[in-house]
Amino acid sequence: MIDYSDKRRRMVREQIEARGVRDLAVLKAMEKAPRHLFVPEVMLEQAYEDSPLPIGSKQTISQPYTVAFMTEALELTGNEKVLEIGTGSGYQTAILAELSKEVYSLERIPELAKLASKRLAELGYKNVQVRAGDGTLGWPEAAPFAAIIVTAGAPEIPEPLLEQLEDRGRLVIPVGDKYSQTMIRVRKRGQETARESLGPFRFVELIGEHGHRE
Ligand code: SAH
Fold it and tell me: Which domains does the chain carry?
């Protein structure tokens, strides 16, 4: 039998701590969440490798470091209502569920949304809602959110997401062209927003009304 918890500890030490992620709660969540249960069965062996992996429908589960980096950037304390755009496998959703009060997650591809929702329920995550739909429009009925994370590459920051961000909230989103993006963190203060660049990344496209065209 493969010792997945040992693989996870090594993943956290060698891929995540080694690259500078320091938030202990994030490291603990990454050590706990069973990433191997979020990848296709044929990829089990690769689940804890330092790379994204295919999850079907031409989409990927993000590299572990990317998940840790973005989660740390959200500065979660445990009390937040979080919006996630791009559920994909549901792995990032599970990490968010460990570190916040409630997670609302939107996925464009219905089959992926369904699979992730089932998986998260089976694993016992009760503070998560997954819905199929265009995340560039946000989730108005559940707004405002203290934190919003977008895990697909956007041509620009979707206006509805800025509107649905609460005062003092954080939005983390990769923005750029189809081939490379810069991770941006937006902080809202009243009606003002401040933007910071957090470095280069590469994601699949965010497709939707305020994203790339299909
Ligand atoms: N966090 C996920 C990443 C999946 S890849 C994981 O680690 O598993 C990005 C996902 O964003 C894909 O599943 C893609 O279908 C989805 N996506 C792209 N555009 C979207 C949109 N407008 N709304 C919701 N999801 C979108």
Answer: 52-201 (3.40.50.150)
